[in-house]
What we know:
Largest sheet: 8 strands, mixed
Strand content: 15-25%
CATH topology of the domain at 9-74 and 189-256 and 354-403: FAD/NAD(P)-binding domain
Bound molecules: flavin-adenine dinucleotide
Structural class: alpha/beta
Helix content: 25-40%
Distance between the termini: 44 Å
Number of helices: 10
Radius of gyration: 21 Å
Order of helices and strands: HEHEEHHEHEHEEHEEEEHEEEEHEEEH
Number of strands: 18
Amino acid sequence: xxxxxxxxxxxxxxxxxxDLERAFPALExxxxxxxxVIGGGITGVLISYFLAEAGIRTILLEGRMIGDxxxxxxxxxxxxxxxxxxxxxxxxxxxxxxxxxxxITEDNHRIISEIISNEKLKCEYRKNGSLILGISAQEGxxxxxxxxxxxxxxxxxxxxxxxxxxxxxxxxxxxxxVRMQKDGEIHPVKFVQQLAGILAKKGIPIFEHTLVENFSSxxxxxAVLIETDRGTVSCAMAILATNAYTAKxxxxxxxxxxxxxxxxxxxxxxxxxxxxxxxxxxxGYEYWRQLQNGRFLVGGFRxxxxxxxxNESESGNPELIKGLFEYFTSLFPQAKSAQISHAWAxxxxxxxxxxxxxxxxxxxxxxxxxxxxxxxxxxxxxxxGKMAAEMMIDGTSQNSDLFYSxxxxx
Length: 410
Ligand SMILES: Cc1cc2nc3c(=O)[nH]c(=O)nc-3n(C[C@H](O)[C@H](O)[C@H](O)COP(=O)(O)OP(=O)(O)OC[C@H]3O[C@@H](n4cnc5c(N)ncnc54)[C@H](O)[C@@H]3O)c2cc1C
Protein backbone atom coordinates (compact mmCIF):
# COMPACT_ATOMS: atom_id res chain seq x y z
CA UNK A 1 0.00 0.00 0.00
CA UNK A 2 1.09 3.56 -0.63
CA UNK A 3 1.41 5.92 2.32
CA UNK A 4 -0.15 8.73 0.37
CA UNK A 5 -3.83 8.02 -0.09
CA UNK A 6 -4.55 11.13 -2.15
CA UNK A 7 -2.28 10.57 -5.09
CA UNK A 8 -4.43 10.41 -8.23
CA UNK A 9 -2.50 8.68 -10.98
CA UNK A 10 -3.75 10.75 -13.93
CA UNK A 11 -2.77 13.98 -12.13
CA UNK A 12 0.68 12.64 -11.20
CA UNK A 13 4.10 13.28 -12.71
CA UNK A 14 4.50 9.52 -13.37
CA UNK A 15 1.52 9.69 -15.68
CA UNK A 16 1.84 13.19 -17.18
CA UNK A 17 5.63 13.34 -17.42
CA UNK A 18 5.53 16.76 -15.71
CA ASP A 19 4.38 18.16 -12.39
CA LEU A 20 0.90 19.52 -13.05
CA GLU A 21 1.03 23.19 -12.25
CA ARG A 22 -1.36 26.00 -12.81
CA ALA A 23 -1.65 26.36 -16.58
CA PHE A 24 -3.97 29.39 -16.59
CA PRO A 25 -4.06 32.62 -14.55
CA ALA A 26 -6.52 33.53 -11.84
CA LEU A 27 -9.11 36.23 -12.56
CA GLU A 28 -7.63 39.57 -11.61
CA UNK A 29 -10.26 42.09 -12.66
CA UNK A 30 -13.97 42.20 -13.34
CA UNK A 31 -14.90 41.05 -16.83
CA UNK A 32 -17.82 40.59 -19.21
CA UNK A 33 -18.77 37.68 -21.46
CA UNK A 34 -21.74 36.34 -23.39
CA UNK A 35 -21.70 33.06 -21.46
CA UNK A 36 -19.72 32.09 -18.37
CA VAL A 37 -18.94 28.42 -17.81
CA ILE A 38 -18.39 27.60 -14.14
CA GLY A 39 -16.27 24.48 -13.56
CA GLY A 40 -13.30 23.22 -15.56
CA GLY A 41 -13.75 19.46 -15.55
CA ILE A 42 -14.58 17.56 -18.74
CA THR A 43 -18.09 19.07 -18.79
CA GLY A 44 -17.01 22.70 -18.52
CA VAL A 45 -14.15 22.32 -20.98
CA LEU A 46 -16.38 20.64 -23.58
CA ILE A 47 -19.20 23.18 -23.17
CA SER A 48 -16.62 25.97 -23.62
CA TYR A 49 -15.32 24.20 -26.72
CA PHE A 50 -18.76 24.02 -28.36
CA LEU A 51 -19.62 27.61 -27.39
CA ALA A 52 -16.30 28.81 -28.83
CA GLU A 53 -16.94 26.82 -32.04
CA ALA A 54 -20.20 28.75 -32.38
CA GLY A 55 -18.39 32.07 -31.95
CA ILE A 56 -19.83 32.85 -28.51
CA ARG A 57 -17.77 35.11 -26.23
CA THR A 58 -17.16 32.57 -23.48
CA ILE A 59 -15.26 32.66 -20.19
CA LEU A 60 -14.31 29.59 -18.14
CA LEU A 61 -13.98 29.88 -14.35
CA GLU A 62 -12.43 27.04 -12.36
CA GLY A 63 -11.99 27.09 -8.58
CA ARG A 64 -8.99 24.73 -8.56
CA MET A 65 -7.10 23.57 -11.67
CA ILE A 66 -8.52 22.26 -14.93
CA GLY A 67 -9.35 18.56 -14.46
CA ASP A 68 -8.41 18.52 -10.76
CA UNK A 69 -11.70 17.14 -9.39
CA UNK A 70 -13.60 14.03 -10.59
CA UNK A 71 -12.23 14.42 -14.11
CA UNK A 72 -8.69 13.81 -12.84
CA UNK A 73 -9.72 11.01 -10.48
CA UNK A 74 -11.66 8.59 -12.64
CA UNK A 75 -10.68 5.47 -14.53
CA UNK A 76 -11.07 6.95 -18.00
CA UNK A 77 -13.67 4.59 -19.48
CA UNK A 78 -15.87 5.88 -22.29
CA UNK A 79 -18.89 3.61 -21.94
CA UNK A 80 -22.18 3.25 -23.75
CA UNK A 81 -25.23 3.57 -21.52
CA UNK A 82 -26.15 4.73 -18.05
CA UNK A 83 -25.34 3.24 -14.66
CA UNK A 84 -27.89 0.41 -15.25
CA UNK A 85 -27.58 -2.60 -17.55
CA UNK A 86 -29.66 -2.04 -20.70
CA UNK A 87 -32.42 -4.55 -19.92
CA UNK A 88 -32.90 -3.01 -16.48
CA UNK A 89 -32.84 0.53 -17.90
CA UNK A 90 -35.58 -0.46 -20.37
CA UNK A 91 -37.71 -1.81 -17.53
CA UNK A 92 -37.12 1.24 -15.33
CA UNK A 93 -37.32 4.01 -17.92
CA UNK A 94 -39.31 2.51 -20.78
CA UNK A 95 -37.94 1.04 -23.99
CA UNK A 96 -38.02 4.18 -26.09
CA UNK A 97 -36.27 6.36 -23.52
CA UNK A 98 -33.57 3.77 -22.81
CA UNK A 99 -32.84 3.34 -26.52
CA UNK A 100 -32.49 7.11 -27.00
CA UNK A 101 -30.14 7.33 -24.01
CA UNK A 102 -27.93 4.52 -25.33
CA UNK A 103 -27.83 6.22 -28.73
CA ILE A 104 -26.79 9.51 -27.12
CA THR A 105 -23.89 7.80 -25.35
CA GLU A 106 -22.81 6.16 -28.62
CA ASP A 107 -22.91 9.63 -30.21
CA ASN A 108 -20.92 10.93 -27.25
CA HIS A 109 -18.04 8.58 -28.02
CA ARG A 110 -18.05 9.63 -31.66
CA ILE A 111 -18.04 13.33 -30.65
CA ILE A 112 -15.10 12.82 -28.28
CA SER A 113 -13.11 10.78 -30.80
CA GLU A 114 -13.71 13.43 -33.49
CA ILE A 115 -12.44 16.16 -31.17
CA ILE A 116 -9.35 14.04 -30.37
CA SER A 117 -8.71 13.56 -34.07
CA ASN A 118 -9.53 17.11 -35.24
CA GLU A 119 -7.57 18.82 -32.47
CA LYS A 120 -4.75 16.23 -32.59
CA LEU A 121 -4.97 15.50 -28.85
CA LYS A 122 -2.48 12.98 -27.48
CA CYS A 123 -4.54 11.49 -24.68
CA GLU A 124 -3.91 7.72 -24.86
CA TYR A 125 -7.28 7.19 -26.53
CA ARG A 126 -8.10 3.63 -27.58
CA LYS A 127 -11.32 2.11 -28.86
CA ASN A 128 -10.57 -1.20 -27.18
CA GLY A 129 -14.13 -2.10 -26.20
CA SER A 130 -15.62 -2.80 -22.79
CA LEU A 131 -16.64 -5.99 -21.02
CA ILE A 132 -19.68 -5.74 -18.78
CA LEU A 133 -19.11 -8.65 -16.43
CA GLY A 134 -21.64 -10.52 -14.30
CA ILE A 135 -20.53 -11.85 -10.93
CA SER A 136 -23.81 -13.37 -9.70
CA ALA A 137 -26.42 -15.65 -11.24
CA GLN A 138 -28.85 -12.72 -11.22
CA GLU A 139 -26.45 -10.46 -13.10
CA GLY A 140 -25.63 -13.25 -15.57
CA UNK A 141 -29.34 -13.53 -16.39
CA UNK A 142 -29.65 -9.75 -16.78
CA UNK A 143 -26.64 -9.62 -19.07
CA UNK A 144 -28.13 -12.29 -21.33
CA UNK A 145 -31.30 -10.20 -21.55
CA UNK A 146 -29.24 -7.05 -22.04
CA UNK A 147 -27.41 -8.61 -24.98
CA UNK A 148 -30.68 -9.70 -26.60
CA UNK A 149 -32.19 -6.23 -26.10
CA UNK A 150 -29.12 -4.45 -27.46
CA UNK A 151 -29.08 -6.57 -30.62
CA UNK A 152 -32.84 -6.21 -31.12
CA UNK A 153 -32.48 -2.43 -30.85
CA UNK A 154 -29.65 -2.25 -33.38
CA UNK A 155 -26.61 -1.77 -31.09
CA UNK A 156 -23.34 -3.67 -31.62
CA UNK A 157 -22.52 -6.15 -28.84
CA UNK A 158 -21.17 -9.68 -28.28
CA UNK A 159 -22.19 -12.12 -25.59
CA UNK A 160 -19.75 -14.31 -23.65
CA UNK A 161 -21.19 -17.15 -21.59
CA UNK A 162 -19.50 -18.45 -18.42
CA UNK A 163 -17.13 -20.71 -20.34
CA UNK A 164 -16.17 -17.95 -22.76
CA UNK A 165 -15.53 -15.56 -19.83
CA UNK A 166 -13.27 -18.15 -18.19
CA UNK A 167 -11.34 -18.65 -21.39
CA UNK A 168 -11.06 -14.93 -22.12
CA UNK A 169 -10.08 -13.80 -18.61
CA UNK A 170 -8.53 -16.98 -17.14
CA UNK A 171 -10.88 -16.61 -14.18
CA UNK A 172 -13.93 -18.80 -13.52
CA UNK A 173 -15.82 -16.36 -11.25
CA UNK A 174 -17.94 -14.67 -13.90
CA UNK A 175 -21.48 -15.58 -14.90
CA UNK A 176 -21.45 -14.01 -18.35
CA UNK A 177 -20.47 -10.82 -20.11
CA VAL A 178 -21.56 -8.38 -22.77
CA ARG A 179 -18.77 -6.93 -24.88
CA MET A 180 -19.41 -3.46 -26.31
CA GLN A 181 -16.98 -3.16 -29.21
CA LYS A 182 -17.45 0.60 -29.58
CA ASP A 183 -16.39 1.55 -26.03
CA GLY A 184 -12.91 2.73 -25.11
CA GLU A 185 -10.59 4.66 -22.85
CA ILE A 186 -8.75 7.97 -22.52
CA HIS A 187 -6.34 9.75 -20.23
CA PRO A 188 -8.90 12.26 -18.94
CA VAL A 189 -6.41 14.86 -17.67
CA LYS A 190 -4.42 14.93 -20.91
CA PHE A 191 -7.73 15.30 -22.78
CA VAL A 192 -9.03 18.29 -20.79
CA GLN A 193 -5.68 20.02 -20.29
CA GLN A 194 -4.82 19.89 -23.99
CA LEU A 195 -8.30 20.97 -25.06
CA ALA A 196 -8.25 23.86 -22.59
CA GLY A 197 -4.85 24.89 -24.00
CA ILE A 198 -6.34 24.96 -27.51
CA LEU A 199 -9.27 27.08 -26.29
CA ALA A 200 -6.90 29.54 -24.64
CA LYS A 201 -4.95 29.82 -27.91
CA LYS A 202 -8.22 30.62 -29.66
CA GLY A 203 -8.71 33.52 -27.24
CA ILE A 204 -11.14 31.98 -24.72
CA PRO A 205 -10.26 33.39 -21.29
CA ILE A 206 -9.71 30.55 -18.80
CA PHE A 207 -9.18 31.28 -15.13
CA GLU A 208 -8.01 28.75 -12.56
CA HIS A 209 -8.01 29.22 -8.79
CA THR A 210 -11.05 31.43 -9.23
CA LEU A 211 -13.85 30.21 -6.99
CA VAL A 212 -17.37 31.33 -7.85
CA GLU A 213 -19.04 32.29 -4.60
CA ASN A 214 -22.42 33.41 -5.80
CA PHE A 215 -24.46 34.40 -8.83
CA SER A 216 -27.46 36.67 -9.09
CA SER A 217 -30.14 36.13 -11.65
CA UNK A 218 -33.88 35.67 -11.29
CA UNK A 219 -37.02 35.19 -13.40
CA UNK A 220 -36.97 38.83 -14.55
CA UNK A 221 -33.25 39.44 -15.15
CA UNK A 222 -31.73 39.39 -18.60
CA ALA A 223 -28.18 39.25 -17.22
CA VAL A 224 -26.22 37.24 -14.69
CA LEU A 225 -23.74 38.70 -12.25
CA ILE A 226 -21.15 36.17 -11.04
CA GLU A 227 -19.18 36.93 -7.90
CA THR A 228 -15.87 35.18 -7.45
CA ASP A 229 -13.22 35.47 -4.77
CA ARG A 230 -11.18 37.49 -7.30
CA GLY A 231 -13.66 39.78 -9.12
CA THR A 232 -17.01 39.73 -10.88
CA VAL A 233 -18.12 38.52 -14.30
CA SER A 234 -21.19 40.06 -15.98
CA CYS A 235 -22.73 37.90 -18.66
CA ALA A 236 -25.99 37.18 -20.45
CA MET A 237 -26.01 33.53 -19.39
CA ALA A 238 -24.04 31.12 -17.23
CA ILE A 239 -23.82 27.35 -16.85
CA LEU A 240 -22.94 25.36 -13.75
CA ALA A 241 -20.58 22.58 -14.87
CA THR A 242 -19.85 21.91 -11.23
CA ASN A 243 -21.27 18.36 -11.01
CA ALA A 244 -20.95 17.06 -7.41
CA TYR A 245 -20.42 20.61 -6.10
CA THR A 246 -23.50 22.15 -7.75
CA ALA A 247 -25.64 22.43 -4.61
CA LYS A 248 -23.05 24.73 -3.02
CA UNK A 249 -23.93 27.34 -5.66
CA UNK A 250 -27.60 26.42 -6.11
CA UNK A 251 -29.00 24.90 -2.89
CA UNK A 252 -32.27 24.05 -4.67
CA UNK A 253 -30.36 21.26 -6.42
CA UNK A 254 -29.15 19.80 -3.11
CA UNK A 255 -30.93 16.45 -3.32
CA UNK A 256 -31.01 16.47 -7.15
CA UNK A 257 -27.24 16.09 -7.67
CA UNK A 258 -25.76 14.28 -4.69
CA UNK A 259 -22.01 13.83 -4.01
CA UNK A 260 -20.90 10.18 -3.87
CA UNK A 261 -17.33 9.10 -3.20
CA UNK A 262 -15.54 6.44 -5.29
CA UNK A 263 -12.14 4.84 -4.51
CA UNK A 264 -9.40 4.00 -6.99
CA UNK A 265 -5.82 2.78 -7.13
CA UNK A 266 -3.05 2.13 -9.65
CA UNK A 267 -0.34 -0.50 -9.24
CA UNK A 268 3.24 -0.67 -10.35
CA UNK A 269 3.49 -2.10 -13.90
CA UNK A 270 3.25 -5.86 -14.43
CA UNK A 271 4.88 -7.46 -17.48
CA UNK A 272 1.95 -9.79 -18.13
CA UNK A 273 -0.96 -8.13 -19.95
CA UNK A 274 -4.21 -9.63 -18.63
CA UNK A 275 -6.93 -7.32 -19.92
CA UNK A 276 -7.55 -5.86 -23.34
CA UNK A 277 -10.93 -4.21 -22.72
CA UNK A 278 -12.01 -1.87 -19.95
CA UNK A 279 -14.03 -3.88 -17.45
CA UNK A 280 -17.25 -2.93 -15.65
CA UNK A 281 -18.33 -5.59 -13.16
CA UNK A 282 -20.88 -6.21 -10.40
CA UNK A 283 -23.50 -3.82 -11.82
CA GLY A 284 -20.77 -1.18 -12.21
CA TYR A 285 -19.76 -1.14 -8.56
CA GLU A 286 -16.24 -2.35 -9.49
CA TYR A 287 -14.30 -1.55 -12.65
CA TRP A 288 -10.74 -1.97 -13.88
CA ARG A 289 -8.40 -1.90 -16.82
CA GLN A 290 -4.72 -2.44 -17.51
CA LEU A 291 -2.95 0.64 -18.78
CA GLN A 292 -0.76 0.26 -21.82
CA ASN A 293 2.30 0.54 -19.53
CA GLY A 294 1.18 -2.61 -17.65
CA ARG A 295 -0.24 -0.89 -14.54
CA PHE A 296 -3.64 -2.00 -13.23
CA LEU A 297 -6.16 0.77 -12.62
CA VAL A 298 -9.00 -0.36 -10.36
CA GLY A 299 -11.95 1.61 -8.97
CA GLY A 300 -15.20 1.19 -7.07
CA PHE A 301 -16.32 -0.10 -3.68
CA ARG A 302 -18.79 2.73 -3.09
CA UNK A 303 -21.27 0.07 -1.90
CA UNK A 304 -18.95 -0.59 1.07
CA UNK A 305 -18.52 3.05 2.11
CA UNK A 306 -21.19 3.08 4.83
CA UNK A 307 -22.99 6.21 6.01
CA UNK A 308 -20.08 7.80 7.84
CA UNK A 309 -18.02 8.43 4.71
CA UNK A 310 -17.27 12.04 3.75
CA ASN A 311 -18.40 11.98 0.14
CA GLU A 312 -16.42 15.11 -0.66
CA SER A 313 -13.13 13.79 0.68
CA GLU A 314 -10.64 13.05 -2.09
CA SER A 315 -8.39 10.96 0.16
CA GLY A 316 -8.71 7.29 -0.53
CA ASN A 317 -10.04 5.40 2.47
CA PRO A 318 -7.21 2.97 3.41
CA GLU A 319 -9.65 0.23 4.49
CA LEU A 320 -11.68 0.50 1.29
CA ILE A 321 -8.59 0.64 -0.92
CA LYS A 322 -7.25 -2.47 0.86
CA GLY A 323 -10.61 -4.19 0.39
CA LEU A 324 -10.68 -3.23 -3.29
CA PHE A 325 -7.14 -4.59 -3.79
CA GLU A 326 -8.09 -7.86 -2.06
CA TYR A 327 -11.26 -8.14 -4.13
CA PHE A 328 -9.36 -7.59 -7.38
CA THR A 329 -6.49 -9.93 -6.56
CA SER A 330 -8.87 -12.66 -5.35
CA LEU A 331 -10.16 -12.69 -8.93
CA PHE A 332 -6.75 -12.24 -10.54
CA PRO A 333 -4.04 -13.63 -8.22
CA GLN A 334 -1.42 -12.85 -10.90
CA ALA A 335 -1.80 -9.19 -9.86
CA LYS A 336 -0.91 -9.86 -6.20
CA SER A 337 2.77 -9.12 -6.79
CA ALA A 338 1.97 -5.65 -8.16
CA GLN A 339 2.27 -3.06 -5.37
CA ILE A 340 -0.14 -0.14 -5.21
CA SER A 341 1.71 2.99 -6.33
CA HIS A 342 -1.16 5.51 -6.31
CA ALA A 343 -4.45 5.57 -4.38
CA TRP A 344 -7.11 8.23 -4.12
CA ALA A 345 -10.81 9.00 -4.02
CA UNK A 346 -13.01 11.23 -6.15
CA UNK A 347 -16.45 12.75 -5.84
CA UNK A 348 -19.10 11.93 -8.40
CA UNK A 349 -22.50 13.63 -8.79
CA UNK A 350 -25.41 11.19 -8.65
CA UNK A 351 -28.94 12.05 -9.80
CA UNK A 352 -32.10 10.44 -8.47
CA UNK A 353 -32.76 8.41 -11.62
CA UNK A 354 -29.18 7.92 -12.86
CA UNK A 355 -29.75 10.29 -15.80
CA UNK A 356 -27.88 13.62 -15.99
CA UNK A 357 -29.59 17.00 -15.63
CA UNK A 358 -29.35 19.64 -18.35
CA UNK A 359 -31.33 22.89 -18.53
CA UNK A 360 -32.17 26.03 -16.58
CA UNK A 361 -31.87 25.94 -12.81
CA UNK A 362 -35.08 26.58 -10.86
CA UNK A 363 -35.85 30.30 -10.61
CA UNK A 364 -33.00 31.42 -12.91
CA UNK A 365 -33.83 30.95 -16.61
CA UNK A 366 -30.46 32.37 -17.69
CA UNK A 367 -28.42 29.99 -15.55
CA UNK A 368 -28.12 26.39 -16.73
CA UNK A 369 -26.85 23.24 -15.07
CA UNK A 370 -25.18 20.25 -16.72
CA UNK A 371 -24.20 17.33 -14.48
CA UNK A 372 -25.39 14.45 -12.31
CA UNK A 373 -23.88 11.71 -14.50
CA UNK A 374 -24.03 9.07 -11.80
CA UNK A 375 -20.50 7.86 -12.47
CA UNK A 376 -20.66 8.14 -16.29
CA UNK A 377 -19.44 11.66 -17.07
CA UNK A 378 -17.05 10.58 -19.84
CA UNK A 379 -19.94 8.67 -21.39
CA UNK A 380 -22.14 11.77 -21.57
CA UNK A 381 -20.12 15.02 -21.44
CA UNK A 382 -19.46 15.18 -25.22
CA UNK A 383 -23.12 14.82 -26.16
CA UNK A 384 -24.39 16.93 -23.29
CA GLY A 385 -21.74 19.63 -23.76
CA LYS A 386 -22.87 19.98 -27.37
CA MET A 387 -26.53 20.00 -26.38
CA ALA A 388 -25.89 22.55 -23.61
CA ALA A 389 -24.28 24.92 -26.11
CA GLU A 390 -27.19 24.46 -28.55
CA MET A 391 -29.79 25.06 -25.84
CA MET A 392 -28.09 28.21 -24.61
CA ILE A 393 -27.62 29.59 -28.12
CA ASP A 394 -30.80 28.42 -29.88
CA GLY A 395 -33.11 27.78 -26.92
CA THR A 396 -33.56 24.14 -27.93
CA SER A 397 -31.72 20.91 -28.69
CA GLN A 398 -32.95 17.55 -29.89
CA ASN A 399 -33.33 15.04 -27.03
CA SER A 400 -33.02 17.68 -24.30
CA ASP A 401 -36.36 16.44 -22.88
CA LEU A 402 -34.51 13.34 -21.59
CA PHE A 403 -32.37 15.47 -19.28
CA TYR A 404 -34.96 18.08 -18.21
CA SER A 405 -33.32 19.77 -15.22
CA UNK A 406 -36.52 20.39 -13.25
CA UNK A 407 -38.01 16.89 -13.54
CA UNK A 408 -37.66 16.08 -9.84
CA UNK A 409 -40.12 17.38 -7.28
CA UNK A 410 -38.93 20.41 -5.26
C1 LIG B 1 -13.10 6.65 -8.84
C2 LIG B 1 -13.92 7.18 -9.99
C3 LIG B 1 -13.94 6.50 -11.19
C4 LIG B 1 -14.71 6.97 -12.25
N1 LIG B 1 -14.62 6.35 -13.46
C5 LIG B 1 -15.30 6.83 -14.52
C6 LIG B 1 -15.14 6.26 -15.80
O1 LIG B 1 -14.32 5.36 -16.00
N2 LIG B 1 -15.92 6.73 -16.82
C7 LIG B 1 -16.80 7.75 -16.61
O2 LIG B 1 -17.52 8.10 -17.56
N3 LIG B 1 -16.91 8.38 -15.44
C8 LIG B 1 -16.18 7.95 -14.38
N4 LIG B 1 -16.26 8.59 -13.19
C9 LIG B 1 -17.13 9.77 -13.09
C10 LIG B 1 -16.48 10.97 -13.79
O3 LIG B 1 -15.24 11.23 -13.19
C11 LIG B 1 -17.39 12.20 -13.67
O4 LIG B 1 -18.69 11.88 -14.11
C12 LIG B 1 -16.86 13.34 -14.52
O5 LIG B 1 -15.51 13.59 -14.26
C13 LIG B 1 -17.67 14.59 -14.25
O6 LIG B 1 -17.01 15.66 -14.89
P1 LIG B 1 -17.43 17.14 -14.54
O7 LIG B 1 -16.61 18.05 -15.35
O8 LIG B 1 -18.91 17.27 -14.65
O9 LIG B 1 -17.12 17.27 -12.98
P2 LIG B 1 -15.67 17.56 -12.22
O10 LIG B 1 -14.60 16.91 -12.96
O11 LIG B 1 -15.91 17.25 -10.84
O12 LIG B 1 -15.53 19.10 -12.49
C14 LIG B 1 -16.29 20.07 -11.81
C15 LIG B 1 -15.38 21.27 -11.64
O13 LIG B 1 -16.11 22.36 -11.10
C16 LIG B 1 -15.23 23.08 -10.25
N5 LIG B 1 -16.06 23.87 -9.34
C17 LIG B 1 -16.98 23.42 -8.47
N6 LIG B 1 -17.55 24.44 -7.82
C18 LIG B 1 -16.95 25.57 -8.30
C19 LIG B 1 -17.11 26.95 -8.02
N7 LIG B 1 -17.98 27.38 -7.09
N8 LIG B 1 -16.35 27.85 -8.69
C20 LIG B 1 -15.47 27.44 -9.63
N9 LIG B 1 -15.28 26.14 -9.93
C21 LIG B 1 -16.02 25.22 -9.28
C22 LIG B 1 -14.45 21.98 -9.54
O14 LIG B 1 -13.24 22.48 -8.97
C23 LIG B 1 -14.23 20.99 -10.65
O15 LIG B 1 -12.99 21.15 -11.31
C24 LIG B 1 -15.50 8.14 -12.10
C25 LIG B 1 -15.45 8.86 -10.91
C26 LIG B 1 -14.66 8.40 -9.86
C27 LIG B 1 -14.61 9.21 -8.58
